[in-house]
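Quick one, probably user error.
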């Protein structure tokens, strides 16, 4: 059995605060994660945490390499350090996915702030809903810009900006959103995530870097003069040097030995709507084009028109229900709102978040209301009379073919069918149930309150009774129950957009887009539920094509050919999506075509114009430049990743062993341990009773609780062990009973000595903690720190110290020397960080001066040209005009010279001020706290 001294040591080893660039810092965060962390992700997270003086970093790994996991590791590390003012700003469509990923993979609680939740928190007494304790704040870019005043009031520990390429044009005067975000988070350390930091102009790279740290480059003019207007290998080398400390990028080809990529295989199923279906479509389309529409609020007309079009294309059942809703609202003199259709069209909140409306409202005329109600009743009657949908029949035709295709690729016979409407979902459930899939269909949506889902949920609760997999949150547990039902028993999942957010369906490799979103980022999100990490098979993607609708066909062409969403390798489509700043903007443009174009020629002309407009964005002009500046092909990348792979496995195993050993000591009377597995049954007390497992995969497979350092039970054990006061004692190390070989400990067999363990805390740029092992034999031989730690591996007995003398004076001398060495190590490292910052500020100052000097050189050239003009001029009038122009330019040059001198003084003053701020942080203090002293004997 181990001793309380062992327990205290392990508790400290598990919770030491490591330095920014310490490998242990990330492996501890990885040990708490429910995900297999790859070496390149550790590399990226270490880069993001590298310097305590850094203002942030850009993680620009190629698509499909898991930048969310990299950011999750950094957020986890900040959380563990109790720096919990964390904000994640993302496109609206990714908010829920981020919340799920943080909770499921990293156990980080979060809250999505949008208009409704923001107002609710204010009503509860939170004057600033962004200033919450112990929750990661998640919001969209548009909401962050709208609430910048509140965000600016919070002193954030870290801001993560996902899909950060939408900010790359911040240097342009008309990019209000990007400038707003930049100003709002100016004083905050930032982590930018983007696979496409450079698309069409080097200035985009300047823009992204300036958001992280405005002192990396000079101003816009100096950057253009130095880098953007010239191209050479020397220019690229200088730019790479500047970017080396702020931007990192790993390529897919560099990690193929860790990650297997699969392909997408498209199937397109055509269908021809019946005459009644087509007539309904045409009549409702004409209605939506009316100049005055009283059933829709003028402030949201374009948004609501888009939603109605999507429901119209989904099914006659979807539009019929919505038309009845329009009729009821109009009868009560109330236009329909986004909130009214949210139950059926679940993507409305994301659309509304990024949609700009007008404030004009229609004047309600009773006669016009009667006329509009008559039309709506006619459309609703027609919709309700149509019981068979051509697209539904096409689904039955293609589904067996698609399942056979997936089966031939080695995949399970499972399909997820996505629809944009909850009413269409009910129609599909009935259709499939009546046509060979009875008992094999599961529904998944935002509420999951239908009888089938409730039955599945209740059965799931019985199956897992007493297991920690039950969280107590009905919404979370019913989602888990439905996904388990689909994975273990059912064949088909019919899902609304809720399943496209944060749900892992990698066990399925067939995606059916029954309704096709117009937002390509939303389509990618759907397919990404299956085509993701861990997918072992090629993924089949089925889409439907309406042969009587030219606009629908052109939308499909755009998504398939321009955005490459349905074919190619894992993540390839993301590269093209990176060209978009916002998928909602494209959705608006497509909606405009549907609304304004009536003939086939008009539709084709509008889509041709839209495609031409997208060409410059989608087809990057700077592929070679991006490779030269950002893609690192050095051999040391591969070598470093190999080292990280080995180190990560070793350190994670060490941490698990420390935690398991700690639990065995602290839970000796309340847990039964399985000696063959890292698993134990806990009888309860500080946490719920049940089975606990230190391996997250095996924990999931067995239905156990994942036991990790930040689990409440582990935290209580650590706190108990750390707080325990331990008197000096004798420890007898039972090396003869140890099954392995520790050569350095074996050499101490039969010897005795003294060991003091202390905790050294150093504060300068950041807080770091070290354990100091001062060991010596009775013969006066120094026992190195590594061997001292290994003395705690075998089991040991603890005995009272008895009549032994006090520790040898040499123990104190060794301790003092080790403290000096650690302080010197920290000082040297901080010196390197300081040198980096000073060099960065020097380059920034030089850039600004270069820009001013370049302007003076340009004016000198103009003066020379005007002199030549004056000399060669024939008429006196021309000579006088040239002289006058020359004098004006000389006046400008002289003014610029004065500005240069003044600017140089201002730049130098700013540089000195920044250096003084760094120096203030550099003041180093330290304290040493004794943990325990033991007399040891190895037998």
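Nope, works fine. Designed sequence:
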């Amino acid at each position: 059995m181990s001793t309380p001294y062992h327990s205290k040591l392990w508790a400290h080893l598990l919770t030491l605060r490591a330095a920014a660039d310490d490998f242990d810092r990330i492996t501890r965060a990885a040990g708490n994660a429910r995900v297999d962390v790859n070496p390149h992700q550790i590399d990226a997270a270490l880069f993001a945490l590298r310097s305590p003086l850094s203002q942030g970093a850009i993680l620009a790994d190629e698509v499909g390499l898991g930048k969310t996991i990299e950011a999750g590791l950094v957020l986890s590390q900040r959380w563990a350090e109790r720096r919990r003012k964390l904000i994640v700003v993302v496109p609206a469509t990714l908010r829920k996915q981020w919340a799920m990923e943080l909770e499921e993979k990293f156990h980080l609680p979060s809250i999505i702030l949008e208009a409704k939740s923001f107002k609710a928190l204010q009503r509860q007494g939170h004057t600033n809903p962004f200033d919450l304790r112990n929750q990661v704040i998640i919001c969209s870019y548009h909401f962050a810009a709208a609430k910048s005043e509140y965000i600016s009031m919070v002193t954030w520990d870290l801001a993560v900006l996902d899909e950060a390429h939408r900010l790359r044009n911040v240097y342009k005067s008309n990019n209000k959103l990007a400038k707003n975000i930049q100003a709002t988070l100016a004083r905050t350390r930032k982590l930018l995530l983007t696979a496409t930091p450079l698309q069409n102009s080097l200035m985009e790279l300047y823009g992204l870097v300036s958001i992280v740290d405005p002192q990396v480059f000079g101003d816009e003019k100096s950057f253009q003069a130095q880098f953007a207007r010239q191209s050479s290998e020397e220019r690229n080398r200088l730019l790479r040097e500047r970017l080396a400390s702020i931007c990192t990028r790993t390529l897919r080809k560099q990690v193929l030995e860790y990650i297997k990529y699969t392909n997408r295989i498209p199937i397109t199923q055509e269908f021809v709507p019946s005459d009644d279906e087509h007539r309904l479509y045409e009549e409702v389309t004409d209605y939506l084009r009316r100049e005055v529409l009283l059933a829709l609020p003028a402030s949201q007309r374009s948004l609501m028109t888009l939603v109605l079009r999507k429901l119209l294309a989904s099914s006659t059942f979807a539009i019929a229900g919505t038309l009845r809703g329009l009729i009821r609202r109009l009868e009560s003199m109330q236009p329909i709102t986004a909130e009214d259709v949210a139950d059926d069209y679940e993507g409305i909140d994301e659309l509304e978040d990024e949609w700009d409306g007008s404030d004009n409202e229609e004047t309600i005329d009773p006669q016009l209301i009667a006329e509009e109600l008559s039309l709506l009743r006619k459309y609703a009657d027609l919709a309700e009379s149509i019981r068979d949908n051509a697209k539904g029949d096409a689904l039955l035709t293609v589904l067996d073919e698609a399942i056979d295709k997936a089966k031939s690729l080695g995949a399970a016979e499972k399909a997820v069918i996505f629809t944009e409407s909850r009413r269409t979902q009910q129609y599909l459930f009935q259709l499939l149930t009546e046509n060979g899939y009875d008992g094999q269909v599961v529904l998944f949506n935002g509420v999951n309150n239908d009888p089938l889902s409730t039955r599945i949920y209740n059965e799931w609760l019985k199956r897992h009774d007493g297991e920690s997999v039950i969280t107590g949150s009905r919404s979370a547990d019913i989602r888990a129950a439905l996904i388990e039902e689909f994975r273990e028993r059912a064949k088909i999942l019919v899902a609304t957009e809720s399943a496209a957010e944060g749900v892992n369906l990698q066990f399925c490799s067939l995606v059916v887009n029954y309704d096709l979103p117009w937002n390509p980022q939303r389509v990618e999100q759907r397919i990404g539920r299956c085509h993701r990490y861990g997918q072992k098979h090629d993924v089949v993607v089925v889409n439907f094509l309406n042969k009587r609708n030219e606009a629908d066909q052109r939308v499909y062409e755009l998504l398939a050919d321009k955005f490459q969403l349905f074919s190619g390798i894992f993540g390839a489509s993301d590269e093209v999506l990176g060209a978009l700043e916002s998928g909602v903007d494209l959705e608006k443009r497509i909606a405009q075509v549907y609304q304004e174009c009536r003939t086939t020629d008009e539709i084709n002309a509008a889509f041709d114009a839209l495609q031409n407009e997208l060409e410059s964005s989608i087809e990057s002009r700077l592929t070679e430049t991006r490779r030269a500046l950002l893609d690192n092909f050095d051999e040391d990348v591969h070598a470093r990743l190999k080292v990280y792979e080995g180190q990560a496995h070793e350190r994670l195993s060490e941490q698990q062993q420390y935690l398991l050993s700690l639990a065995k000591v602290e839970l000796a009377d309340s847990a039964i341990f399985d000696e063959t597995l890292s698993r134990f049954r806990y009888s309860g007390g500080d946490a719920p009773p049940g089975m606990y497992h230190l391996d997250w995969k095996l924990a999931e497979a067995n239905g156990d609780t994942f036991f990790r350092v930040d689990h409440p039970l582990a935290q209580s054990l650590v706190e108990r062990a750390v707080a325990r006061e331990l008197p000096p004692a004798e420890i007898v190390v039972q090396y003869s009973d140890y099954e392995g070989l520790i050569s350095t400990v074996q050499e101490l067999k039969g010897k005795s000595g003294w060991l003091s363990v202390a905790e050294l805390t150093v504060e300068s740029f950041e807080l770091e903690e070290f354990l100091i092992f001062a060991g010596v034999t009775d013969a006066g031989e120094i026992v190195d720190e590594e061997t001292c730690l290994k003395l705690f591996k075998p089991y040991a007995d603890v005995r009272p110290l008895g009549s032994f003398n006090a520790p040898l004076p040499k123990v104190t001398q060794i301790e003092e020397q080790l403290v000096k060495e650690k302080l010197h190590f920290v000082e040297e490292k901080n010196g390197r960080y300081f040198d980096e910052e000073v060099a960065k500020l020097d380059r920034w100052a030089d850039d600004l001066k270069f820009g001013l000097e370049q302007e003076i050189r340009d004016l000198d050239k103009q003066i020379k040209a005007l002199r030549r003009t004056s000399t060669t001029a024939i008429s006196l009038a021309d000579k006088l005009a040239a002289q006058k122009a020359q004098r004006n330019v000389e006046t400008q040059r002289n003014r610029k010279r004065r500005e240069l001198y003044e600017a140089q003084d201002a730049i130098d003053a700013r540089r000195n001020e920044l250096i003084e701020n760094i120096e203030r942080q550099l003041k180093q203090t330290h304290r040493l706290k004794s943990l325990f002293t033991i007399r040891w004997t190895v037998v």
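The two ends are 15 Å apart (CA to CA).
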